[in-house]
Design a protein that fits this description.
globular, UDP N-Acetylglucosamine Acyltransferase, domain 1, mainly beta, three-stranded parallel β-sheet, about 55 residues, 9 strands
Length: about 55
Amino acid sequence: NVSIGPYTIIEKGVVIGDNVVIGANNMIDIDTAIGQDSEIKSNVHLYPRTSIG
């Protein structure tokens, strides 16, 4: 159950956990990990090799 908003760019090597909500107009850079049950609001840029959640 992952929700990804419009105009969001997800690069290669990104790992997204269960029940993640990603808002609109985001940039998720390479080799980023987003843990389960996380929420990323709109207009966010996650830099390469970032790990959250």
